[in-house]
Amino acid sequence: MTGGVKEVRSKGVRLFWVMLVIGILTLVFSSSQSYDFITYSDGSLIDYGHGWKTEAGKTVSLKGLSSAISGDDSNITISKQLPSYIKVGSSLNFRSKNIDFAVYVDGHEIYEFYPKVSKASGRSYGSCFHYIKIPSKYEGDTITIKADPIYNDGSCFLSMMKLGDNGQYFREFVRSHAIPFLVCMITIFLGMLMLILAFVVKNSELSGYNMFTLGILAIMIGTWSSMETLVPQALIGHSDVMHGINYLLLMLMPFPAVQFSNSLLAKPRKLYTQISITLVTIIFVVSSILNYSGIRDYHQCLPLIHAGLLFTVLFIVFMFVNNGIYCRRNKVKSMGFVMLAGFVICIIMGMMDLYRYVFSADASEDAGYFLRIGILMYVVILFANSFNQIMKRMRIASEAEIMRQVAYTDALTRLPNRIAFLDKEKELQDKVRSGAVSRVLVCQFDVNNLKIVNDTYGHAYGDRHLIAAAEAIREAFGESGQCYRVGGDEFTLFMTKEPLMENFESCIEKMKQNQEEYSKKPDTKLTLELAYGQAFYDGKEIDSIEKAEQIADSNMYGKKTEMKNINEE
Prior knowledge:
- By secondary structure, the chain is of the alpha+beta class.
- Helices cover 57% and strands 14% of the residues.
- The two termini are 69 Å apart.
C-alpha cells in the first residue's frame, strides 16, 4: 500500500510540473512580441506612429530615424499634421530610445528632451516614456519633431506612439507587457528561493554552491530581461540608471553562468573558474576604461560584450563535451539529461536573442524575449529538482539526527548519556587548553538511598525516583550547565558560564527546592535527596578534567556522609 501511494505521489508531482511549464509557455508564446496595444472599444487612443515626413517630403519610419539621416547632418526633422479634432486632455504618448529631441507645433516649442546622462550608463539614457500634452487649440496644426540620434545605428528610434489619454496609454502598456514582466518576476523570485535553499544546505557544499550560482544567474537574467520589457522604466523612470545596470549585468553574467555549469560537472575544474573570471575582468575593465575616458561608451562596447557572451556559450559547450568524455572514460554518472537539455535550450534561445539584436530590425523591441522563456523553463525545472533533493537531504538528516539522539540520550531520564558525556569531556578539555574557555566547573551528583527505594518499593518506583532526580537537576541548571547520566544513580554536570560559583550556588538552591516539591507530593514514598560535590578544571593546578571529576566525586561522597549523619540525628 505504501509503495502504491509513493508511486501515485511521484507521478502527481511530475504531472504538476509538466502542466505548470506547459501553462507558462502557452501564456508566453501567446503574447505578442511587437507589443501593439489592444485599445478599448471607445477608440480614444489613436495610432500616431505612421505618416511622418522629412523636410524633403519623404515618408520615414520612426524606427529608422538614424538611417534616414543623410549627408553630414547629425539630426533629422520630421513633421505630421495633427487631427482636426483633439479630445480635451489628450497627449502625444511614445517611447524614445537613445535619441534627444524637441517637439514643436507650428514653430512653437512645446517639449524638449536633452537629458544629462551619468557616465555610468555611457552617452545614452536607454528607453524613456513621454507624455506631451496637446491642447485642442492645436487641432489641424503641424507637429514637428527635431530628433538628434545619439548613435548612427538602429538603436535610436521613437516607438509606441499614440495620441490620446495618457492614463489609458499607461494602462494599455502595462496590460500588454504584464505577462513578459510577470515571467521575469517569477524568475527573480525563484532565483531568490534558490539562494535561500543554498544557505539551507550550506553554500560550501557542491550542491549548495550549485543552487547559489543558479540563483545569482536567475536573478541577473530576470533583472536584465525585466528591463527589456520596459515596465520598470514606465513605472519608476530613472531610465539611465537602469540602462547602466543592464550593461553591468551583461558584462558580469558570464561568471555565474560558467560557475553554475562547472558545479554540474562530474569533475569541476578550478581552471574553468579562472578562465571565466579573467574573461569578465577583461570585458569589465576594458569597457569601463573606454567609457570613462570618452573613447567609446558602453553601447559602442556592445560588440566586445556580445563577443564575451558568445565565448561563454561556446566555452560552456566545451565544458559539457569534455565532461561527457571524462564520464564515459571513467564510467562516472554524468549530469541528468533533463538538466543538460534545459541548459542547451537556454543557450539556443539566448543565441536567438543575440542574433535578433544584431541582425533584426525589431531587435530593440525586446532583446530578452526568447532567453526569458528559456531561463524560466530551466529555473523551474532545476528549482523543482533542487527542492526535491533538499527535501530528501532534510529527511535523511532528520533520520540521522533521530539516530544520533537515540545513541546519545539516556532512555530513562532523557538526559545525555555516557557516550555524550565522553564527547563533551574531550571538547571542554580541548577548549581549556586552547584558551577558548578559561575554566570548567565539574559537579558530581548521586541519589541517596536508591537501593532502599528499589528494595522496598520496587524497581519501577526506583526508576521514577531517578527520573525525578534528573528533572530536579535539569530544571535547576537550565542553560547554565549540561547534566549527563554517567551511571546507575550517578550524574555529572559541566558549567562554563561565569561567574561559575555564584551561578552554581544559585542553581543548587533551585535544585533543593525542586527536591522538596517532589518529596511533598502525596504519592512520594521516600524523600528525594541528591548528594553533590564540585571542583574546578582550569588546565593549571588541575591538569586534566578527569582529575577534576575525581576531586568532585570525593567531595560528593563527603557531602553524602554529612547528609547521612544529619538524617541520623
